[in-house]
Amino acid sequence: MKSVVYHAFSQKEAEEFDVQHAGPQRAEAFVRAFLKRCTPRMSAQAREDQLQRKAVVLDYFARRKRKEKTKRARGLSARQRRELRLFDVRPEQQRYSLFLPLHDLWKQYIRDLCGGLKADTQPQAVQAKLLKADLHGAVISVTKSKCPSYVGVTGILLQETKHVFKIITKEDRLKVIPKLNCVFAVETDGFVSYIYGSKFQLRSSERSAKKFKAKGTIDL
After folding, report:
1. pLDDT category, 138, cuts 50, 70, 90?
2. Strands 174-178 and 164-168, sheet pairing
């Protein structure tokens, strides 16, 4: 093993590298301890055989650390959000003028989405974009409904859920209009689009991936 792994410095080499001569027994013990640390899973006999037959790459052996499972912080459930009333509009905030800047932002958003609303723009293209767009801030009107008291209600859309629209009217009144059995009109720079609420019972985040039929039923 001595001849394979190392050889003793000569007197000249020791003086050149400023190394003190260690006794052969100490050198042998150091090499054996070093090899044992570098190959902890091998027996002494296997280590001797390995050194005689092939070159051995000595590497630092580190134990694998167990990965601790990190718990992701869970958000509030739908029930907890309802109990905390996070999405309720406070009475002092139910003012139509307060949401006019939101409506202006929405109009610019629709113009950018449709590549500019011009006189020669196809209404079908605007309708297709509008069905998948975010409607928060749009001015919507109820044109048809099985409940007569809903017809004619107009205001800025504040919140959209799967089944209802919450709008603020010019009279500073918050109205909750169900989508079911209602037809809504959305006007944008002279383009009027109609939304059949019964076919629109989706969350705004789900509509972006929804494929709407070009021609559907006109029943409420």
Report:
1. very high
2. antiparallel
- Find all residues with CB under 8 Å of 87, minimum gap 6, and list them: 81, 159
Packing angle of the helix pair 24-38, 44-53 (nearest 10 deg): 100
Spatial distance between the Cα atoms of 71 and 3, rounded to a whole number of angstroms:
56
Q: What is the pLDDT of residues 67-87, one digit of tens each?
A: 777 777 778 887 888 888 887
Rounded CA-CA distance 216/75 in Å is: 38
Amino acid, res. 48:
E
Could you give the 3-state DSSP secondary structure of residue 127? helix
Band (29; pLDDT cuts 50, 70, 90): confident
Tally of residues, the chain: 220
Q: Within 13 Å of residue 174, how many CA atoms lie on the same side as its CB?
A: 15
For 138-151, b where at least 16 C-beta lie within 10 A, e where not — what string?
bbbbbbbbeeeebe
On whether the pTM is more than 0.85, the answer is no
**pLDDT computed for residue 151 by the predictor:** 93
Helix (H, G, I), strand (E, B) or coil at 35: helix
Calculate the alpha carbon distances from 141 to 69, 167, 192, 215 in Å: 51, 9, 11, 22
pLDDT number for residue 195: 87
Residue written as tokens 């409940």?
147
Compute how many other C-beta atoms are within 10 angstroms of the C-beta atom of residue 20.
6
Closest by CA to 186, choosing from 218, 141, 145, is 141
* Residue keyed to tokens 């100490």: 26
Each residue of 49-59: pLDDT tens digit?
777 766 666 55
